[in-house]
Amino acid sequence: MKDKFQQIREALSEQDFSGSSYEANVAKLMQTRSDTLERAESATIIRDHLMRALFQTHPKTFYEKEILKTLDEIKRSLREQNNALSTNNYIIYITDLNHDLYQLRLPIAVNIEASADEYVAFISEMALYSQGDTELEAILGLKEEIVSLYCELNSTTLTLGPLPLSWKRLLNRIIEER
User: Fold this and answer.
1) How far, in Å, CA of 154 to CA of 135, rounded?
2) Structural domain boundaries, residue 79
3) What is the pTM assigned to this prediction?
4) CA 68 to CA 74: how far, in whole Å?
5) Less Cβ crowding at N or C end of the chain, within 10 Å?
């Protein structure tokens, strides 16, 4: 994943990625996942130490079986939490805009957050968001937002501030007319 991000970053100038929110979000997600895995490993280590201690004092007791059962349930719960983290937040790359007039030169990384009743697709670097009942609805809405922002930034006669100007530069590099 990082290799693709680096390829995209190399294709675009460094000034277009002035904010670190994308990298920070990915790092936060990876750290949370790592912390969850460490807790699962810690539960396994604790279980192993308890097993050794119980075998030395009271081999094969009823309590030992109950403690091991409880520790296994904790471990299973931590793994389920880890799986929930990895399946509810993910990144996809869009390669087209589904538009008659515009197309993408380069893929765009899109963050997807899935919950029980909706999907949110967003590009935090450009403050573009869309939501839908399905992943497809959220992505199609985001594509419309990308085209809308591109058209708006390229048609304005006003002087743009630094942030909208960086969005315009980025969009002009990755979008072209058909």
Assistant:
1) 29
2) 26-86
3) 0.53
4) 10
5) C
